[in-house]
Amino acid sequence: MIARVLLLLWIAGWIVAGFFWAPLVPVLGETTRVLYLHIPAAWITMLALGWSMVHSLLYLRRRKLEHDDHAAGAAEIGILFCIAATASGSLWAKAMWGSYWNWDPRETSIFFLLLIYAAYLAVRSAIDQDERRARLSAIYSAAAFVAAPFLMFVVPRIYFSLHPDPIINSRGKIDMDPRIRVVFFALLLGFTALFFWLLSLRVRVARLERRGLAAQGGAS
Amino acid sequence: MPTSRSSSGAAVWAVLRKECVSEWRTRYGLNSALLFAVTSLAAVSFAIGRLGDRADVLAGLLWIVLLFASLASLAHAFVREVEGKTLTMLRLVAPPTAIALGKLLFNLLFLVVIELVTVPLFLILMGAPPPRWAPFLTLLALGSIGLAVAATVIGAVISQTRGRGALFAGTAFPLLLPIVAAAVSGTRAQWTGAPMDSELRLLAAYAAALLAVSLVLYDHLWED
């Protein structure tokens, strides 16, 4: 309980600090602040997908439904952060680049992650039986695990080699103002904690649901 | 164990032969896939007309047509077994990896037949400049292998779900995206004369990685 309240205060406090304490970057102006939400969201998108995929592989190895709960929960929460990262990035692109979407390498890779999340959840929703759903979605996840590095890192490099994005490149994180850096890392930490808290809730709900179903099946 | 390996090689071959025979009996899958490929090609050609001087657009359209054709047809190999209720029998006589490999080879063959019709027709209808044949055919071959490998593993998963065919296109697309991206950029490069080694390497590496992983995964495919 205490931890949750502290987390709420931590995130809220640093968001306020992002508005009133940290300075703005000259070229970016008011859009600087998107980085406090957008980059943590993108980071959690990748973290959740990795978490989901690793637990899928663990499920295939150990056959414990607990791993499937983690894989499913991480995907369900991850897709929300993925949508948040996509939307905030798109808004920022409109402000800085003049269009909501232009298949910049980063836009390509986040779109791809969104597709993987959606397809994974679609596979899950189409199978009724627990073990079978866990096994088949884990197989899908493992196959997507192979595709991910190719689309994240390799394809943008060869496919868009003529389209550098100078704004992101010139704004290397090393140049970040110390106060911006403090707020950014504090929020990164806060949102990561938020993700794991949500995930633990989701896993607990799944476990209780399964126990409830088992009890029902035993009673009837 | 050399005996089990040679027997699984024989099983792969037997599954492939069985697929070809049962496909040839009705030719339902092949006919609908060819019809679909030609229809999408005609729609593209009709909507856009001849584009001899636009290698970038041509490369994209060619792979969209091929992507659609494979999305429309490659789930068929597994879905047919489930719908015909023949999967149980098949599982009794062959190990899962052999079944999957046989179906993978069948899918590859299937794609080659589709391409034999679609690609020449595309080049003619769109008024494309003559491709550099060696790199063009290498690209087509590597792209087809990648499409077949990805489509086979997804088809195997999808055939056991409620949506089956309906779910296939959406779930296969993320895995096909790297192939299409590299193949399109490679095809464009062979028309404009730019180097295309990195695309070929990417296609080969992706197909190999996905094949290696899917060979491990096929052991988990059926358990109930």
Strands, helices and their partners?
The complex is a heterodimer of chains A (220) and B (224).
Chain A: H1 2-20, H2 34-62, H3 65-97, H4 105-125, H5 130-159, H6 166-170, H7 178-219
Chain B: H1 2-26, H2 28-48, H3 55-73, H4 76-83, H5 87-93, H6 96-125, H7 133-158, H8 165-192, H9 197-217
Describe this entry's structure for a reader.
The complex is a heterodimer of chains A (220) and B (224). Chain A contains seven helices and no strands. Chain A is mainly alpha-helical and 220 residues long. Chain A has one domain. In chain A, helix 2 crosses helix 5. Chain A is globular, with a radius of gyration of 20 Å. About 6% of the residues of chain A have low confidence. The radius of gyration of chain B is 18 Å and the shape is globular. In chain B, helix 3 runs antiparallel to helix 6, helix 4 runs parallel beside helix 7 and helix 7 packs parallel to helix 9. Chain B is mostly helical and 224 residues long. Chain B is built from nine helices and no strands. Chain B has one domain. In chain B, 83% of the residues lie in helices and 0% in strands. The longest helix of chain B is centred in the middle third of the chain and has 30 residues. Classes of the chains: A mainly alpha (220), B mainly alpha (224). The interface between A and B is medium-sized, with 31 and 35 residues.
Features:
heterodimer; A: 220 residues; mainly alpha; B: 224 residues; 83% helix
Number of strands of chain B: 0
Binned strand content of chain A: under 5%
Q: Give the number of helices of chain B.
A: 9
Task: Indicate the percent of residues in helices of chain B.
Answer: over 70%
Annotation field: number of helices of chain A: 7
Mean pLDDT of chain A: 84
